[in-house]
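Cont'd.
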Amino acid sequence: MAITRKMRTAAAMSAALALLVSGCGGDDSGGGGGGGGGDEASLEGAELTVGAKEFTESKVLAQIAAQALENAGATVDDSSLSGSATVREALEAGEIDMYWEYTGTGWVNILGNTTEDVPDDLFAAVAEADAENEIAWLEPAPMNDTYAIAVQSAFAEDNDLTTMSDAAAYIQENPDEATICAASEFLNRDDGLPGLETTYEIKFSEVVELDLGLVYTQVGDTCNFGEVFSTDGRIIANELTVLEDDLEFFVPYNAALTMRQETLEEFPAIEEIMGPISEALTNEEITALNAAVDVDGETEQDVATQWLEDNGFLE
Amino acid sequence: MTSTVEQAPDLGTAPQAAMAPVRRERRTLGSYLFMPVFLALVCAGLYLYMSNQELDSIEQRSLNASKIGESIWEHVQLAAISTIFVILIAIPLGVVMTRPFTRSFRGILLTFANIGQAVPTIGLLALLAVAFLFIGFTAAIVGLVAYAVLPVLRNTIVGLGQVDENILEAGRGMGISKMGVLTRIELPLSVPIILAGVRTALVINVGTATLATYINAGGLGDIIVAGLSTNRINIQLTGALLTAVLALFIDYLAGIAEDVLRPKGL
C-alpha cells in the first residue's frame, strides 16, 4: 500500500516498462486478438491507460491489468505516478483510466475518514461512498497489503516471537529493547503506531523515523522492530519475519482496480476480464511477485507476463 | 510636472554628485522592523486559521505546540550546526586555495566542492543510510555540510581574489608579514562577499534540512512529510509555512549580521 514508497530507479524502470509493453502490444494484437474471439469478452478498439503508484506492487498489479486487457484486444498505455493523491487526481482528471487502489487507502486518504470508524465490510463501504465521486471499484483481490511489524528472523526464533501478542509480552519484559523503525505515515496514522500501541497495550521505548525503504535494512541494526508491508518482497531479502496481527488491529488493505464510472460503462468487459485475475491474487502470490522484482531484479512486465501465463490468463 | 521642470537646471551638477563615494546607507528603523512584523503576522494568521479548524486525530498529532516547537528547535539546530561546520571548513579552505602553493591541486579541491553540491542531498543521505547504515542527526549534518560548502568556498575565493593587488603590495612594502596581510588587509576587505556566501549557505541549509526527516533527524520536514503522507493539507500548510518563515527570519538575521560585521568604510 505504501503511499510514500520511493523507487529511486523509477525513471529507468518506467522507460524499460514503456519499451517492453509496446513490445508486448505488438505480439498480442497479432496472435491473441484473433484467438480471443468467441464468447471471450473483447475490448477490440478500446484505448486505455493504466496508472500505477511508484512502487513495485502497484506497478506489478498495473502490468497484470495492462497485459490482460491487451490480451483482450485493447490498446493499453501505462503511466507511473508518485503517491496516492497524484494517481487519484490523474484518474479523476481522465489522464489515466484505471489503477489499483487499496481499500484502506480509499477509506482514509481519499474519502477523508479516520480509522476509528472502519466498517466491518470496508470494501462495500468504500465502493459505495466513492460511487458519489463517479469512481467505480471492481471486486477486490484477497491479497491484503497492510501494515505489519517485522523482526529479524533470528531475533524471532531466539525470543520465540510469532504474533504481535508475543511481541507485546517480550516488550513488557524488555522495555529497553522496544525500539521501532518506521516511516512518517505509519507514525502519524491512527491505524499505525498510535493505535497499535493502544490495542496491544505496549509502548515502544524509541521511535526511529526513517524513509520507508531504509526501514527494511535497519531492522536488527538501529532497531529491533520495524514497520513493513505484509506483501513486500524485501521481507524475504532482509530475512525478516512478519509478526501475525492476532488481535486484527490493522485495517485491511485489499487491492481493487478503480476506474471512472463512465469508463466501466463504456467497456463493461473489463469487469469480466479482471474478475478471475483479481480473485487469484493472494498474499502468497503477490509477495512472490514483489520479491521476483525487488530481490531477483526481474522487470515488472516479465513477472506479470509469467504469472498471467502460469495461471492461464493469457492465450 | 513641476518636479521635472525644477530638476532641469540641476543637470549640470548631477555628475559631480555621482562622483562622491557611494555610502551604503544604514537601514532605517522601518526597514529593520518590516520583516519581523511581517513574519509575526504570517504566524499569527496561521495560528488563528488553524485554531478555527476542527482537527482530526491525525492532524492533532502533528499540529500541537510541543510537536511544532520540537520540530522548529531541531530544524534550527540542523541549520545552525551545519552552517557552523560549513564556515569552519569552507573559509580556511578558501584561504588555502588562494595561496600560491596550492595552485597545483586547486582544481581538484574545487571539483570536490562542486560534486558536493551537484549530488542531491536526499541522494547523499540515502547513500549514507544504505551503504554505511549511517543515520540520525550526525548523518544529516554531513549531508547538509557537503551540500552548502560550495557557496561559501566560492565566495571566499572570489572575495580574496578581488582585493586590489596594489593594496597588498603596499602592505608588504610596509613590512607586514604574509599572515598580517591576510588577516589585516585581505580578509577584512573580502568580508562582505564571504558573508553573502554564508547567508546563501544558511538559507540553503534551512531549506534542505527538511529532508533530514527521512533519516530520523527530525526538523520541520517531520511535519511536512506527515502532512504529505496522510494527505492532510493543514499539516502540509503549517510545515511549509513555518519552514518559509524560518528561512526568511534567519536570512533577515544574517542580513543584520552582514551590516554589523562589514568593516567600517566599506
